[in-house]
Design a protein that fits this description.
Layout: E1 2-9, E2 12-21, E3 27-30, E4 36-41, H1 46-55, H2 57-73, E5 85-88, E6 91-99, E7 104-108, E8 111-116, H3 122-148, E9 161-165, E10 172-175, E11 180-184, H4 192-204, H5 213-222, H6 226-235
Helix pairs in contact: 3-4, 4-6
The structure holds zinc ion.
C-alpha cells in the first residue's frame, strides 16, 4: 500500500510516498518523475522515517535534479510546427509551415516546407509530411538500388520490385521469392551511407536468406565496413511524431 505524505526539511515541504513492506531497512528512491519513494519496514515509526529523509536530503535533491535534467534532455515528439528541426538524409532541416491551396512539401537549403490548407491542423501537417517521406523515398531508392545491383548479380537476375512502408522495427524486408524489397520510409532521415548499408543488406538476402555467417561474409566482401555502418544505423536517433501515438 502506498501513502502520500509530506516532511518538513528546513523551510521546504518535501512530498514522498511511503510503502510499508516486509523489509529490514528503509530505502529511498527518486523515480524518473521526480517522485520520492520510501519503502519502510512495517513497524518503523514516521518520526524515524522522517529523520532519515532529513539526513538524506542532499541525496534526494541531487536525485530530483538529475531526473529533471534527464526529462528535459529526452527529445519531445515533433508536432511538425514551424521552427522544429529534423534530419533529412542526415542533414538538419528546419520546418516551415505555409498556407497553400494545394498540399505539398519540399526540402530546399536546410528548410523543409510543408504547404497545407490549414497550418493549424496537426493531422493535415502530418499527412503532408508522410506524403513527403513517401515521395522522397520513391525518388531515392530506385537509383540507390541500381547503383548497388552490379555487385549482387547474377542474383537477382533483374531489378527487384521496390515498395515502401512506414515500419516500427525494421529498415528493410527482402522477399527473395517475389523478387521484392520493402524499404522503411523513415530511412529518409538517415545519412546516405547508412541507407546504402540497408540497400546492400537487403540485396545480399537474395543470396543468403538468413543472417548466417555466410551472409555476413558475403556482405563484408562487398561492403568492408558493413558492421560499423550497422552499429551507426542502430545508434542513430530518428525523430518521433506526436501524431503517431494518436
Ligand atoms: Zn536482414
Amino acid at each position: 500500500m502506498s501513502e502520500s505524505r509530506f516532511v518538513t526539511v528546513g523551510r521546504e515541504r518535501l512530498a514522498y510516498t511511503l510503502n510499508r513492506r516486509r523489509v529490514k531497512n528503509i530505502t529511498i528512491r527518486v523515480r524518473e518523475s521526480g517522485e520520492v519513494a520510501v519503502t519502510a519496514p512495517t513497524r518503523t515509526t514516521i518520526a524515524r522515517i522522517e529523520e532519515i529523509l532529513r539526513d538524506k536530503i542532499t541525496f534526494i535533491r541531487d536525485g530530483k535534479e538529475k531526473m529533471a535534467k534527464k526529462c528535459a534532455a529526452a527529445p519531445r515528439p515533433l508536432t511538425l510546427c514551424t521552427g522544429e528541426v529534423l534530419p533529412i538524409f542526415g542533414e538538419m532541416h528546419t520546418i516551415q509551415v505555409v498556407s497553400d491551396a494545394r498540399c505539398r512539401a519540399g526540402a530546399i537549403n536546410g528548410v523543409l516546407y510543408l504547404a497545407v490548407k490549414n497550418p493549424a491542423d496537426a493531422a493535415e501537417r502530418y499527412r503532408c509530411f508522410l506524403d513527403f517521406l513517401d515521395k522522397t523515398a520513391r525518388a531515392y531508392f530506385p537509383d540507390a538500388v541500381a547503383r548497388a545491383l552490379p555487385q549482387f548479380l547474377p542474383k537477382p537476375p533483374k531489378a527487384p520490385t521496390l515498395s515502401y512502408r512506414t515500419m516500427k522495427t525494421r529498415w528493410g524486408v527482402c522477399n527473395y521469392n517475389k523478387q521484392k524489397i520493402t524499404f522503411n520510409r523513415r530511412l529518409v532521415f538517415f545519412p546516405p551511407h547508412l541507407i546504402e548499408y540497408v540497400v546492400y543488406h537487403e540485396l545480399a538476402h537474395f543470396h543468403h536468406p538468413n543472417h548466417s555467417k555466410d551472409f555476413w561474409q558475403f556482405l563484408t566482401a562487398r561492403m568492408p565496413d558493413c558492421q560499423k555502418r550497422r552499429e551507426a544505423l542502430n545508434d542513430y536517433k530518428t525523430p518521433a511524431f506526436a501524431a503517431e501515438n494518436k
